[in-house]
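Many introductory courses stop at the sequence. We go one step further.
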Amino acid sequence: MLASLRIQNLALVEDLSLEWGPGFTVLTGETGAGKSLLVDALSLLVGARGDAELVRHGSDRATVEAVVEGRFEAWQAFLADRGLPEEQPVVLRREVGSGRSRAWINGASCSLADLRDAGRLWMRLTSQHDHQSLLGEDRHLALIDEVLGLEPALEGEATAVREAEAALKARRRSEAEREQRLEQLAEALADLDKLAPKPGEWAQLKEDREPLRHAVYLEQAFREAAEALHEGVPQVELAHKALMRAVAHWPDAAVEQDRLRSAVLELEDLLALAQDQAQRWAGAGADRIEAMEARLALYERLARRQRCEPEELPGRMVVLREEQRSLLSGEASLKDLERALAKVAETYRAKAEALHGRRADAIPKLEAEVQKRLGRLGMKGARIQLRLSLSEESGSPVQQSGRSVRVTATGFSALAIWIEPNPGEGFRPLAKIASGGELSRLMLALVGAGLSLGSPAADRRDGLTLVLDEVDSGLGGETALAVGKAVAELGKAHQVLAVTHLAQVAARADRHGRLSKETEGGRTRSALSWVAGESRTRELARLLSGHPDRAEALEHAKVLLEG
């Protein structure tokens, strides 16, 4: 559960600190006040891509920091597995700017992949863009896996199949093109041997190149500093000796004498430093710059030939040398490679089949729960079908039920969502018939159904923070009331943060925050205030009518708050 959040220099948000509690919290506000920025901030904390354009004008970086509580054992296992400080509550931090994005967990630097994996422990974010993704069948499987709490983990098995398949194809090709390929490999490896690329060298060369371009200026600057200090140190020493004589007649001058002694020592240290730096940059010189530029150019030229990135050349060299060794030695026979491929293909098939089975077992319960929730959301009689099938791929080395199936990190399942909005109309693909409002309600029904199912997947979700960014888009009237009730139900078991423009939804929240824009000193910034009592009634009236003081809207707002 999210305990606190601090956002600094993120677009209109200059410095905003928020304390969060359990239950259902809603955020409203005028257009452009920064509601979406809070969602952007939370997205950054779960590994979303950072954009320098998010940084507030006049700042060099934006920072988001959160304190997350709960799920002690899950966090403990996660932190231990990645060698991160095992402190709880957990502190997550993310910085974005013009340079490289940076992330920390409990003060220790981590990767964005670590943040994404950590995000699965505490947050689910559903935005207005997510329900539009329902229109693309290529997103359906990932969405249902997320709803069911399934985490496909077949990356290693899928990679093993692809690598074994590539090795077999290379060997078969080599039988016909062996000599020609050996010549190509010899030429490529000769060029790479001249370069002798090392892991991490490309990035280090680029990092070292910039200061070397200014070596002449740096040498001159440090040399001038050394010369000036060389002339000045004797004068300060004379002053020190003069005060030593003064102390003999007036002891109170000892303080100034000590200060001068410290100054002499400091200046002598600075003189030595300036001389060392002048010598260092003199040694850098034009020859070293030219050599570095030539090496970078060679990296780029060979990378173009190998059709890879420069930093990938060390790994590419290993692959080419292994292929050459295989062709020359003939140790890996076709049968050996065929057996190796069959073995990893069967390992992948068995695990993908088990994953497919878990999906098949969970889908009927999910369908029933979603249909029940759609009825409560103003879509009585609507039914959905989650059509699970095998994703076929011609020529695949993996066979399932007599068919060639795809090899991916998510298995060989394919899934399409079909819907019958009204009884008797028949099922059709979701993208062809669903309106924006229906998509919003379906997304909310899916999220709620996944969280309520009494399965291990649902149990793992206890204590999650659910972020709903305008999933009520395109709704109104009685349907909006039903959506508000559904979100409030989620808030009874989970921490829910919803961004909405509907008074019917906002009225059901346990806490209500209003975002507004303030202009001071020619700069605009977002501000958040918690509204209650009369101020909350006026905010709901504004959502209903566009004006906070209209009498009929105020009466309607009071009715909504009374439930």
